[in-house]
Amino acid sequence: MADKIGFTPNRDEASRQAFIGSLKGYINFNIETRLEQVYDEVLVPEFESQQGSAPQSRADAAGLLESHPLYHLWSTLTFHSQNMMWNAVQQTSDRIIEDQVATFEKLSQKPDRLGVLSLKDELVVQAPISTTEIHRQPGGYWKEARPNDIETALNYSGTVDLYRNAKGMGTGGKLGSDSIGQLLASISKKRAPTLDPQDILDMGCGTGEQTLAYKRVFPDAAVTGIDCARPFVRYAHGMAESEGLGLNFAEMDAGNTDYSDDSFDLIVSIIMFHETSPAQVRNILKESWRLLKPGGLVLHLDVPYQPHRMSLFKQVTNHWQVRHNGEPFWTGFAEMDIYKELIDAGFDDQHAFADYETVGPATFFFFGGRKDQ
Ligand SMILES: C[S@@+](CC[C@H](N)C(=O)[O-])C[C@H]1O[C@@H](n2cnc3c(N)ncnc32)[C@H](O)[C@@H]1O
Fold first, then answer.
1. Using a 6 Å cutoff on CB, does residue 304 contact ligand 1?
2. Distance (Å, rounded) from C-alpha 133 to C-alpha 156?
3. Measured between alpha carbons, how far is residue 280 from residues 286, 287, 315 in Å?
4. Domain 115-370 is classified in which CATH homologous superfamily?
5. So where are the chain's domains?
6. How much distance in Å is there from the Cα of 134 to the middle of ligand 1?
7. Cα–Cα distance for residue pair 315/298, rounded to 1 Å
8. Please, what's the b/e burial string for 6-37 (b: 16 or more CB within 10 A of its CB; e: otherwise)?
9. pLDDT score recorded for residue 168
10. 109 C-alpha to center of ligand 1: Å?
């Protein structure tokens, strides 16, 4: 039996998965860049000569692109490389899942466990997580095929860095690395230099790799990760135990937690909000404010695809995620005025922020605020 929880491809599987990562990068960058040239140099001038003005809206731009064979090629390759990615990680999961579940059971029953795993039978998982195979992960995040299942978490964990890096949203981190959590921890220090967090909450912690970073950076803090997908929090708990780190994980809705007011002095999340809904964004922001201790910091990170920052061309390729890639709220999130939502949720306008930071190849959208002492 393995002594650790983790996605461990063998050499052949790893090389197939790396190939798919490169293929996705090639499609997202090289082919998409060529398509953008065709749009700018051929399709827009044709439109202008026929209509007398440039395309005005995403719908105008989509109409132009959808008539072109290179768009069909880009779309087909993007769609099928996603299938290839899930098929490739499934091969590893099929080989190791029974052993990984046994490892999880052993770690979660160890008498000298370092952290607590809390499950909540009465939790009602909200749409779209409950209704959608997010980014077309087969079975979605929460499907359970066996007792103590962690299979969806293994598959997620095996793709997340590949997917982020191929989309230019990563820090170049390797499989299973905690590099985005490390980034968030360092940004929290910049935004709140004198804060020495004692209680940290990671909302939508997923499979927990990034949550571990907060314990590594702030070893004296009590660190808790919550997520509404049960296989994910199981996986996170097993992984933390096998890494010898004492963190708590709980199955919980970030918009309706069980914690009392002023419970945490650092509240973070990484790419959770764009997988929720307008109502949940509002609930989670209100909950972030309610749970924040005076003097504390809320620091959420999500995708930087707000339309005012993007050309019409990019808005079309971005909206493709909604139509074809199991990301129903990708554009809806980007179109929300998050600064206004923060203020409406109770954040004070002296300390609320919603801005961008570029780190290496990626730009991230950061939002949150501080509560006065
Ligand atoms: C894209 S994943 C990111 C996971 C993790 N933060 C990471 O960076 O790897 C988004 C996570 O948010 C969780 N999530 C979405 N809505 C949630 C909610 N209302 N409450 C708790 N978790 C939620 C999902 O189950 C999923 O694990």
1. no
2. 12
3. 10, 10, 24
4. Vaccinia Virus protein VP39 (3.40.50.150)
5. 115-370
6. 10
7. 29
8. bbbbeeebeebbeebbebbbebbeeebeebee
9. 73
10. 25
Q: How far is the CA of 201 from the centre of ligand 1 (A)?
A: 13
The DSSP letter of residue 193 is T
Which phi and psi (to 5°) does residue 67 adopt? Answer: -90, 0
Q: What is the mean pLDDT of the chain?
A: 95
At residue 262, the 3 state secondary structure works out as coil
Verify whether ligand 1 is closer than 6 Å to residue 253 (CB atom): yes
Query: Residue 194 C-alpha to ligand 1 middle, in angstroms?
Result: 29
Q: Is 141 in the pocket of ligand 1 (CB under 6 A)?
A: yes
In tens, the pLDDT along 132-190 reads 999 999 999 998 999 999 999 999 999 987 877 777 776 666 777 899 999 999 999 99
Task: Tell me whether the omega of the peptide bond preceding residue 128 falls within 30 degrees of 0, making it cis.
Answer: yes
Between CA 222 and CA 215 the distance in angstroms is 8
Q: Is ligand 1 within 6 A of the CB of residue 254? A: yes
User: In angstroms, rounded to a whole number, what is the distance separating the alpha carbons of residues 96 and 235?
Assistant: 14
Alpha helices in the chain (DSSP H): 11-25, 32-38, 44-51, 58-65, 69-109, 151-166, 179-191, 209-217, 230-242, 278-291, 312-324, 330-335, 338-344
| pLDDT attached to residue 165 | 76
| Segment 272-288 mean pLDDT | 98
The response to whether residue 276 sits with its C-beta less than 6 Å from ligand 1 reads: yes
